[in-house]
Amino acid sequence: MPSDLLIRDLDKDDLKWLKESQPTGGTQNLFLKSILRQAREKTLQPSLFDEPVYRPPVIHGSLPFKFIDLFAGIGGFRSAMTALGGECVFTSEWDKYAAATYREWYGDNDVYNEDIRQLDPKKIPDHDVLCAGFPCQPFSLAGVSKKNSMGRKHGFDDEAQGNLFFAIMNIVKLKRPPVLFLENVKNLRSHDKGNTWNVIRDQLEAARYIVFDKVIDARHWVPQHRERVFIVCFDRAVFGEHQDVGFEFPELEVDSHPKLGSILGEKAPEKKYMLSDKLWKYLQDYAEKHRAKGNGFGYSLFGKSDVARTLSARYHKDGSEILIRQRGWKNPRRLTPSEARQLMGFQDRYAELFGHTEGFPQVVSDTQAYRQFGNAVVPPVVEAVGAQILQSMVNAVRQSQTGCMLKGRVVADK
Description:
By secondary structure, this protein is of the alpha/beta class. Helix content is 35%, strand content 12%.
């Protein structure tokens, strides 16, 4: 049977419904496939009555929701939340190179490219979900170590980036989004002996949100170890005072570990990605020096059947944390930017949502691209958590008298 299907002579009302129901930012083809897939997977619910009662499945796009993308980077949240049927109504990213990639990838020229602490929250549109991967360098193990070595402050004491969480809270207090969806490094919960996390959690709970958090390793979706803490918060004014909002983080399949072979190119890349003799010798000597001292510092070499270490923003310097054995080459090589993009989960299916038929294009230099991927959030992980959030949102709408989570909220004076 052919994989393509052409539908003729659609009823006017059906065509109108399709146009009105299709989520903003997605293609009609993807929306139709979603409807067919959900219809195929529907199940009958057991009932005490003679006739079985069918509960319609949740179809992505059947609950239109709006979200904002703060500290957006190259749009890990944008890709995932659009795939779930969301409409992005505001984006903030202050790095000019990341903003350039974001504009090109998502066709969105309206990106706020200045310090978010200078933004008047009243100018942000109402939204259902606030997404934010707020800067992690003040809290990451590598970032803290580097700042300590330079005699610089870290955590909330980092004047440039450490207090950006409070910029989020300023927006939260004024706009009162029903759901907060935040991401940061694993070390956020242990930084400063747990005091940093206590401040964050206390701030969120004081704002009357129910807080869920979990460290999730992206290796279940992409071939790299990448542990990040995901924080999901529900407004008590919308979801109720009780803790049971029907939310659970996604279950992780123990055996679901993609390997590097799934993202490495079939053909050898350009030789410019091979390490020079000088750099390769330096990395080997450096590793040997630390090995003699009993330290674990050094390069890491991987093959197609392996799962890589965490891709960092410093990857452009020497690529030492993820070096690839390339058959027929005397020295190992870096990942190409295209492979790094796939390692981070920016899959072609997300690119298709925004009209890119051959994957997301490279917009900036290799150096900037590596930095952007190293700082990014993994879209498939966001999508998996987001799907669980969406189910709780659907339940809240079903139980509400308004049919919309944004209606009837108590918000600050505008």
